[in-house]
Design a protein that fits this description.
243 residues; mainly alpha; 3 helical TM bundles of succinate and fumarate reductases; 10 helices; globular; disordered N terminus
Length: 243
């Protein structure tokens, strides 16, 4: 019962520390920070997709990669906390930017025609981001929390189940047996695609990337925003249909 108050306190403390640092005082600084955290999470997303896709090709390869990622000290004690901090930072910054942008749009003497000046994805980043946040919480309950419980609370770093085999592939496969969970995951990745279609490209614009390669970069970010979430949907459907 103490988890929610602690989480709220963590977010409040983190927000206050960022305010004291002056990061929230500059609109440009906020956008750059948002962009850099987003690009960091995109790199993680690509790596996460690569590992998960091996579950379609080879259960042994997936088990070996999962065990390496789950027991490597550098990943567990350095990269994983950085990743968690990056996720928290990105969502906090996203909500802060949305609030400030909404206040700016409420200025009476300026009439803003959002439909004419921006895409649907850019106007609804807060909603796609909010759904992704809910999806991430469910994903952590399904995968991350059980792993933390097994490895750091029960003290079992072997990665083996009761029969002496690696548990990672079976855990993944069984997670997609219920149709409601598979559907939820697919919907989550649809929202991720919508979020990336605007967010990935705009991240480069926010950090000042505007040159002769911009057109090619737009094509790459669009392809990434569609293919990676579609790949995750394929993985979920594959395991649902083959359980």
């Amino acid at each position: 019962m103490l988890i929610l108050p602690n989480v709220v306190h963590l977010f409040t403390s983190y927000h206050n520390s960022l305010q004291m640092s002056g990061l929230f005082k500059s609109s440009i600084a906020r956008k750059v920070a948002m962009a850099l955290s987003g690009l960091f999470l995109v790199i993680f997303l690509a790596q996460h997709f690569f590992i998960n896709f091996t579950s379609v090709c080879s259960s042994d390869t997936f088990n070996e990669l999962s065990h390496f990622m789950g027991t490597n000290p550098l990943i567990q004690y350095v990269m994983q906390p950085i990743l968690m901090l990056g996720v928290v930072f990105h969502f906090i910054m996203g909500f802060v930017l949305e609030i400030k942008n909404k206040r700016a749009r409420n200025v009476g003497y300026v009439k803003n025609n959002g439909a004419a000046n921006s895409t649907w994805m850019s106007r609804n980043m807060i909603w796609s981001g909010g759904f992704i946040l809910i999806f991430l919480v469910i994903h952590m309950i399904d995968f991350w929390i059980p792993e933390i419980d097994t490895k750091f609370i029960k003290g079992d770093m072997s990665g083996l189940d009761a029969s002496g085999n690696y548990r990672y592939f079976d855990h993944l496969k069984h997670s997609f047996e219920p149709i409601w969970r598979t559907g939820l995951y697919c919907l989550g990745f649809v929202f991720l695609a919508l979020h990336l279609l605007h967010g990935f490209q705009s991240s480069f614009q926010s950090i000042g990337f505007n040159n002769k390669f911009s057109r090619g970069l737009k094509g790459f970010t669009t392809a990434f925003a569609i293919l990676i979430p579609a790949g995750f949907i394929f993985i979920a459907l594959y395991h649902y249909l083959n359980h």
